[in-house]
Amino acid sequence: MAATVAALAAGCGSSSSDASPPAPTTQVVTSLSGEKVTAPLKINRIAEQFPAHTVTDIMLGVGDKLVDIPQNVKTIPFLRKVYPGINGLPELFRNGGKVNMEELLKLKPDVVSTISGGDTLTPFKQAGLPAINMDFNTFPQLVPSIQLAGKVYGGTAATKAKAYNDYVTAKLAMVQSRLAKLPATEKPSVVHIASYPPVVVDGGKSLIDGWINIAGGTDSASGVKGTHVTVSMEQLLQWNPDVLIVETPGGDQGLAANSAQSVIDNLAKSPGWADLKAVKAGRVYLNPQGLYPWDRFGPEEALQIQWAAKVLHPEVFTDLDIRSEAKSFYAKFFNYHTTEADLDQILQVGAK
């Protein structure tokens, strides 16, 4: 009997020690600005502070998990058409990322995707909300940003993130290989105008500066460091670039959607505009806007580098049909089949 009791005791002890530990419910991720953040493994509710990242969320298949988005993102016509669910979402995040924390907490987000790191995360931490900076400011940070989002959201989002990153990496390599031997003398000077009035440009060490250089241009505003920098019309006249690329308002800077032509129409009223080299040569281009302005912080950067390269060097990219490329892109990554009218709208064909 004693032996039997001992054997039973030993068996019970073995069963206890072999018990599987509980499955983890959280993971630690590193934001793009370096913070270590503990977030739930299962994400069901996402608050989005980063405007362009709303499009990334939709691409990764978690659009239905959004509970809050930034102001004016939903004014972009093509976004409303591709993802109608955007229309009913609250817009608690105002220009600059300001938010009423009490109202945000009512939405019970599992995670907040933010536009910056450091001290700006403190209010979210104090409120008990996992906040992860997925914002990026240079082209090389695009792939890590998408990869991070896939890791945070998990499941098929990670697979979709990899598919996108493979695509943009391949397109970047294609553009760079074709322009690798381009002499500096054949690189047109470019200024990217973000908005007007006043004249707002993007300069050195910015995403915009990055794609200008990738596309075989020289950024005349490279001496102005950063994004969304206000300069005078006199400064623009002094730069006098070969090419002007004008952003399409919508989402970025909290601006409601409009055509890039509306910005040019205002610029045309400014003294000296007609004397600019780019204006005289007919090299003022309307930057496409699809789900978001192509030139800014979203997945459509993959299309932007191809479009800009063809704009600056059409003779090198004669085989690149940007309409066909865009059509394929939206079908592959957003399961949306564009019409010719959609493509006209995105590329602003005949926009006035």
UniProtKB/TrEMBL annotation:
<protein>
    <submittedName>
        <fullName>Iron ABC transporter substrate-binding protein</fullName>
    </submittedName>
</protein>
<dbReference type="Pfam" id="PF01497">
    <property type="entry name" value="Peripla_BP_2"/>
</dbReference>
<feature type="domain" description="Fe/B12 periplasmic-binding">
    <location>
        <begin position="45"/>
        <end position="320"/>
    </location>
</feature>
<comment type="similarity">
    <text>Belongs to the bacterial solute-binding protein 8 family.</text>
</comment>
<dbReference type="InterPro" id="IPR050902">
    <property type="entry name" value="ABC_Transporter_SBP"/>
</dbReference>
<dbReference type="InterPro" id="IPR002491">
    <property type="entry name" value="ABC_transptr_periplasmic_BD"/>
</dbReference>
